[in-house]
Amino acid sequence: MTPHRVLIIDDDQMMRNSLVDLAEAAGWTAKALSRATDAARWINQFQPDVILSDLRMPDMSGMDLLLSLKSGPPLVLISAHGDIPVAVDAMSAGAYSFVEKPYDPKRLLLILTHAAEQYQMHQSNLRLKDRLQELSGLDRMIVGQTADILELRRTIVTLAEGQMPVLIRGETGTGKDLVARALHDTSERCDGPYVALNAAQMTVTQLPIIAQGASGGTLFLDEVCACPLDVQPALLRLIEAQEILPDGAALPEKVDLRILSATNEDTAHAISEGRLRPDFLFRLEGFAVTLPPLQARLDDIPLLANRFLQDSAASFGGVPPELGKEELGLLMTHDWPGNVRELRNVIERFVFLSRMGEVKISDAMSGVADFAAKRPGLREAVAAFERQMISRALQDHNGRMDETAGELGIGRRTLNEKIVKLGLDKEALL
């Protein structure tokens, strides 16, 4: 464990010196400030493990500092005027602890040590999760560098270790299916089957067959709010008991699967309308993950656009067109009601149209362009469509040919022939 670092903030010079002496005598590295208004800069520069701040200071109080810190190291408040209401308010606002002056040096050091060790452990866990993301390929599966996406990838790493059901919430096109697949691929069930179904299309008689097919792996149920009411009790029993009753069987059969689900609906509304059983939802929602809309992660658009450019160009066997600043600006200012899926479709359309001549991203966004004179023939259009479909399926299944062929509804031999005929580079796609 590295030596602890404490940022001390107190407008009283004698108190600052006393606190610095106490910290350094204990082997700590200390930085002292006289004003809380300088804290943000020094938190970034000094990177303390804990902050010790006076409560009452001019310009910016310790409580104001606490409320301004959205994240970062724990804050311990100290004050000669402290009382129970202030302490309660401070703790409710997120303070790690509250110490009254005159302070007991041993008690203060113990509080600071516990806070610093907890923070160092938290930071170490974050670094470990980031490393696991790299090793598992999560950075490639879930693209983005905004705070929401970084936290999402860490959450996936954590959830992948467990077996509890996970409900993925999010608007249409936010990537709920990608998150479900990532949860499966980074879990110990990754070598088992991954069965994805639209819950709205399930029947009671199909459920035992589906569960058997997913046993040893993961069952992903999309659009769970549209799941038929007669299927919900059967699914509930499957989740709780991990067993099914095959058609004609006298005794139930054990299965081993993890259930993931997703919805773009308000579950409370679905319950109020009688379309979703509360007990069914409670079992599905062992843990809930909410995906942000693309509008909430605009800084990720350049990364996503570049990724889709590379993928789409690879599917056509060509060089991706470039997006200028103006075109990126246009992407950044669009509303994206269809979220990431809409962005992907726009980029794929842009790449396709650029193969036939100069095109603007605005043409791809509107879906309207004058290419009557250079419209491709049927054979070329079919080939382009096949390249796109096969490329995406290969990426979705990480190059596994049997699964890719199964999704496309063709034989493996036919798939190999099409890959060669269409000039696809499987390695480049992956």
Structure overview:
By secondary structure, the protein is an alpha/beta fold. It folds into 3 domains: 5-121, Rossmann fold (3-Layer(aba) Sandwich), CATH 3.40.50.2300; 158-292, P-loop containing nucleotide triphosphate hydrolases (Rossmann fold); 295-429, Helicase, Ruva Protein, domain 3, CATH 1.10.8.60. Helices cover 50% and strands 12% of the residues. It is built from 20 helices and 12 strands. The protein has helices at residues 13-25, 39-46, 62-68, 84-92, 105-136, 138-141, 147-160, 176-185, 207-214, 231-241, 267-272, 278-284, 301-316, 325-333, 339-354, 361-366, 378-396, 401-408, 412-421, 426-429, and strands at residues 5-9, 29-33, 50-54, 75-79, 97-100, 166-169, 194-198, 218-222, 243-244, 253-254, 258-263, 287-290. It has a 5-stranded parallel sheet with strand order 2-1-3-4-5, with helices on both faces. Helix 5 (105-136) crosses helix 7 and helix 18 (401-408) packs across helix 19. The longest helix is centred in the N-terminal third of the chain and has 32 residues, at 105-136. The protein is globular, with a radius of gyration of 28 Å. It starts with a strand and ends with a helix. Residues 368-375 have low confidence and may be disordered.
